[in-house]
Amino acid sequence: MRLKKLAIVAFSLSSLFATSVFAQEESATARQIIDKFQTELVQVMKDGKKLGYVGRYDKLEPAVSNSHDLPKIARIVVGKEWEKLTEEQQKKLTDVFSKLSIASYAHNFKDFSGEAFAIDSEEETKMGGVVIHSHLNVPDDKPVKFDYMLKEKGASWRIINIIANGVSDLALKRSEYTAILQREGFDTLIAKINEKIDNYAKQ
Amino acid sequence: MNRKTVTTVICGVLFAVNVNAQVKSNDPYESFNRTMYDFNDGVDTYVASPLANGYRFVTPQFVQTGVFNFFNNLKGINVVLNDVLQAKFSQSAADLGRFTLNSTAGLGGFIDVAKHVGLDQNDEDFDQTLAVWGVPQGSYLVLPFVGPNTVRGAPASAFDAAANPASYASIVAYYVSAPVQFVSAVNARSNAEGALKFINEAAMDKYVFTRESFLQWRKNLEDDGKVSASIDDDLFADEKTVNLKSRDYGKQFEIAALSFGSVAQKFDLAIQNFEQANHKIEQLKNR
Asked: Which residue from A114, B191, B221, B267 has the least number of CB within 10 angstroms?
């Protein structure tokens, strides 16, 4: 039972990220960013089978890039280890992490069976961010809660964390990434990320 | 030194050791836990997974759902009991209605009738009750065959088992007990297939992934699904994060040791003994 519930949470967490190289600095509220991203995600799910993995990846790359602050997320997931990395390593990590994030979306949001997002409310954090509380209605199952944490970036807002049914993706990744960095080093971390990207593309 | 002084000193040393361990992280028994995790993984690969696959192969989906509903409904008694212990009286009335409806119109629980009349299932257990009573979560524990748990959750599970009628099938007939528990376990493993597949796909470090998602999920249940806007504020404080968390854990353990007292300490001691035994086995292997 616990594992089953863990699965729902874990599956929900498969949402995240992309490169912000092409990020558009257009003005938008946090709520608008989430609304647009969820709409694009559901559309990709609807066309999922037709698009295939590569098609979904290509569609999701700009969608995720324009809604997530991936360089910032990549920095936070390695915590204070970030400062110990060289500039080249930091760039490498940001690059592969962004690819993994889009690949994860493309792999997990591959089909559609009537799911629909709904925004419930929004809330300001003490640290100057905004949390958008929303949920995903899943036919014949309990809704999955999605709480998006956003920070201001330029004139707009960007997602920096997704909390699915109470499980913080950022905290989860930070525990994993710092553990691997400290125990096995930078090269192993990059190799493991690349392995995950390859596996997502194969399945 | 008299016996009382010796006991005080031992308790003091134990407490100091555990506080230091706790300050390091919420997983001071990581070495032991990883060993147990690998053991469970092996059991799952070679025993539970083949059994669950076989069960799914020979059992129609509606029977699988019925079996799940049956055991899930029996758990409803625990939910009602823990609702009351947490002073959630209106929720306890709804959960009692749910249990009664499924036990009667739902043919002994095999059909989840209550879901279709809008009586959603609440998830309450004694671990959450202890949380409401102010007992901190304590260290992460991986138990053989059982899986992820905590110092607080492990004894709480024993309470829940004692309150679950499925545990007393042997009173009805001795030879019924084992098959009932066996079917329950195989069905639970069968339902977990999706979770395990996801963990295999997404996790970079399966142990850490399981630990973090389990602890966060349990915390969310304690908070009845409410997500605070400041849930992860400390993650953005960069360098301050580690110190803040460490102080927090140290304080938590201090409160835990005081309020949970001997139970938590006995568990910690038992685990240390396990670790020492494991270490000795490793030494013997290396000889």
From this structure: A114
